[in-house]
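At this stage, I wrote out one protein, both as residues and as discrete backbone shape codes, and that material follows here.
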Amino acid sequence: MAMVTSLMSERPVVIFSKSSCCMCHTIKTLISNFGANPTVYELDEHPDGKQLEKELRRLGCKPSVPAVFIGEELIGGANEVMSHHLKGQLVPLLLKANAIWV
């Protein structure tokens, strides 16, 4: 889990994705539309993608993508991100992580 931990600690918003995943695209677009600039790691294009995917599964990400970290905290996959959004909790998380400004 060292690789995932290292990568997710570098930026306020980190998304582990796959380039062919439509839900990944949706989540990246949603977060970007709030003005955040997420760091995105496409596991199917990353040289250590298989290892990263194993680590994400060990962290409880099922399916492994999208896996969204905000402020070094695992938010979860598409269902969890959309749930936070619908409850009005996504923007406060982005603000707290200094990923967006008002």
